[in-house]
């Protein structure tokens, strides 16, 4: 997956040694929840550690390295998270937990990463005064949740083959008037949905209704709302769901509740 840019949602957390476990668990919770929300439940987890036969490439104290590798391993095992150890995969400044997304054809892509940095705090002369009144060097955690933003979006598009869940779809509903006579009612429905923060468009083209439906299917819009004089008379909409599923006619309020529930529950249709 080749992208034209590489922007990371990188953040750095500065903490004491005794706060290290809690902070790693918080980031891990955040990363797992975020991936789940986007539909990435098939994750490969790696513990990246040192190559013990090539210790000269790493910086930092041996004591801190051993503590970090041991603690990261204990965190994963305590949470019963299946993982593989990537020996030699650690950066020169510290070990890490890496979550890799598996795409639609089985390839793995780096996503959430939690890296311990034992180089920069000392390099920047960072210290804090502990409860003992003495100065101590803090621990720094690098973390990214999505990894490369561009690569994440590319993986997301491939994962869903463009058929996004309702909450992610660029256009969540397409209103299809059966003729120009129903354009006013279509615009009225659009305004109602827009006021409820639904991403909606009206197909105003002078095309046959079936052609409009077919085009909306090609665009992989989750919901198609077909409206005509009959729907206008009863404040209703005829619903078609992506994949050529016909839900029939329902009141506008019923449909609004349905789509809002889909969005709230991050549901696929």
UniProtKB/TrEMBL annotation:
UniProt record, GO biological process: threonyl-tRNA aminoacylation
Top EC category: ligase
Keywords: Aminoacyl-tRNA synthetase, ATP-binding, Ligase, Nucleotide-binding, Protein biosynthesis
Matches recorded under InterPro entries: aa-tRNA-synt_IIb (IPR002314), aa-tRNA-synth_II (IPR006195), aa-tRNA-synth_II/BPL/LPL (IPR045864), Anticodon-bd (IPR004154), Anticodon-bd_dom_sf (IPR036621), Thr-tRNA-ligase_IIa (IPR002320), ThrRS_anticodon (IPR047246)
Family annotation (Pfam families): HGTP_anticodon (PF03129), tRNA-synt_2b (PF00587)
Domain of life: Bacteria
Cellular component terms (Gene Ontology): cytoplasm
Reactions this protein catalyses: tRNA(Thr) + L-threonine + ATP = L-threonyl-tRNA(Thr) + AMP + diphosphate + H(+)
Listed EC numbers: 6.1.1.3
Ligase is among the record's keywords: yes
Domain Aminoacyl-transfer RNA synthetases class-II family profile per the UniProt entry, residue ranges: 1-165
Molecular functions per Gene Ontology: ATP binding; threonine-tRNA ligase activity
Family: Belongs to the class-II aminoacyl-tRNA synthetase family.
Protein's recorded name: threonine--tRNA ligase
The organism of origin for this protein: Candidatus Shapirobacteria bacterium CG03_land_8_20_14_0_80_39_12
